[in-house]
């Protein structure tokens, strides 16, 4: 099986409002999959369903080899998630945050320390391991949140607008982390508003009003829409949107 | 094993909170050293106005006995009832004692002479107490007379059992301990969980495979420990400051405390599961805490509530804990005397805990 994610006719309704409207797609193992769309297009809702945080109204899907509707706790064991809101504990140190999440994912006592040391050295952050997270700059917090999300070596990691509000240099560094994780075989599922980041993805899908309007590699999309950048592709599609936030 | 890591994190966060450790240290001290003096319902220094129409040796003796007590202060000797009423209206007196002419003669004959007590009940509590105290003194007086000339009157000897000196502090301190535990173990876990919701960290937890009951336990156990610690400090302070030592077994107190603390934290958790902001959780907790407190018998006796309110108190966990605390502290009751309260509290604790785990949704 080469699919990390396989979704069929997934729909989520909140009352009369259809946030996600009958979407289907596959994500291959080891792929960097960009999940684009304007604000309110339904990206976060779709991603929350994939992570088992929200129950679909209808449709089915397999994530990391487990059924979305019946095996969500098993899915959770095999995925990492970095939410839009920054979600490390501000009143714990870097080291304590790693220790806490590693324990939750069932990493064993001594192994926690070894892995944490390795990861912090790789990030050049070992010296700051006893700093409280609230005292770190935003860019570092996001890098650490990403490292926490992949610490337990999940098959897929979901990133919900991971680089919001940081400078281009830090975003570049962040994407280097993503590439490194992808090279080691982790499937990356990422939402973003930055079209330059969309160019870094192997494939992207573009959501408009709860539906997927386009899905292909950035190069093919540009050719198909006759645009010279992903920005052009996005503008053409997003203009069709009926709903605003 | 995972629980160890989860608890370690909670304790670190509590310790690093700029305000919680201080609150936990200061609250019991404040509650034990200050509140017992403030919530004293005892009424003293009641101004007594006497109209003595008899002016006999016995009537003077009754007046002397009343004004010698620590409750009354003789403010005025009025000639007529109107004059006495005027004194009440000027706020110089709280209660009028009118002795009829022929008081001594009737007493000597062995009849029951009449005296009239009129109390100013603008402040109902003060008026009520004034009337009661005065009747008490008259009863004592007639008992004395009866002893001196046997056969003339029926002897009345009231007895206040278990709290013989009528010290209100002894009555209120066990209830204060209960109130303290309600606040610490109900509010804090509720605010903790809603706090994680507001910061967004709970979503990160919900996407992990952590078991619901483990996560909830890790949120509750710290407050159970803090609750038992605070109770211990309170018991120690009450013994040192007021010499108030439980007449019964300490273990019974702790048994009830553990059940009660589980109940409160369960309620706090249920509230937090249904609230999305701190404000909301605070308001709902305040509502329940105040209702439970007023209907618990901690401050006013359950027996003086209307029947429908008494029925509601059957479902109030606070009521059972207050009853048990007072019974163990003042009467020396043992487990067997309080078994009903214990089992009911156990039931309520189980109910809230199950509801808390059930209502916590990971999605």
Q: What is the number of domains of chain B?
A: 2
Number of helices of chain B: 15
In CATH, the homologous superfamily of the largest domain in chain A goes by the name P-loop containing nucleotide triphosphate hydrolases
Low-confidence stretches of chain A: none
Morphology of chain A: globular
Largest interface: A-B, 29 and 21 residues
Helix content of chain A: 25-40%
Give your account of this protein's structure.
The complex is a heterodimer of chains A (245) and B (363). Chain A is of the alpha/beta class and 245 residues long. Chain A has two domains: 3-78 and 154-238, P-loop containing nucleotide triphosphate hydrolases (Rossmann fold); 89-137 and 147-153, no CATH class. Chain A contains nine helices and ten strands. A six-stranded mixed β-sheet of chain A has the order 6-7-8-3-9-10, sandwiched between helices. A four-stranded antiparallel β-sheet of chain A has the order 2-1-4-5. In chain A, a hairpin with a 2-residue loop joins strand 4 and strand 5. In chain A, helix 8 packs across helix 9 (230-238). Chain B has 363 residues and is of the alpha/beta class. Chain B folds into two domains: 19-39 and 166-359, no CATH class; 46-148, abc type-2 transporter like domain (abc type-2 transporter like fold). Chain B is 66% helix and 6% strand. Chain B contains 15 helices and four strands. Chain B has helices at residues 2-16, 20-33, 35-38, 57-68, 81-89, 103-109, 124-148, 168-199, 201-206, 212-242, 250-274, 278-294, 307-313, 317-331, 339-359, and strands spanning 46-52, 72-77, 95-99, 115-119. In chain B, strands 2-1-3-4 form a four-stranded mixed β-sheet, with helices on both faces. In chain B, helix 2 (20-33) runs parallel beside helix 10 (212-242), helix 8 (168-199) packs antiparallel against helix 10 (212-242) and helix 11 (250-274) packs antiparallel against helix 14 (317-331). Chain B is elongated and about 90 Å long. In chain B, 35% of the residues are buried. Mean pLDDT of chain B is 85; it is low at 154-160. Classes of the chains: A alpha/beta (245), B alpha/beta (363). Chain A binds chain B through residues 51-55, 72-74, 76-77, 79, 81, 83, 85-92, 96, 99-101, 103-106, and chain B through 2, 5-6, 9, 12-13, 16-17, 199-201, 203-210, 362-363.
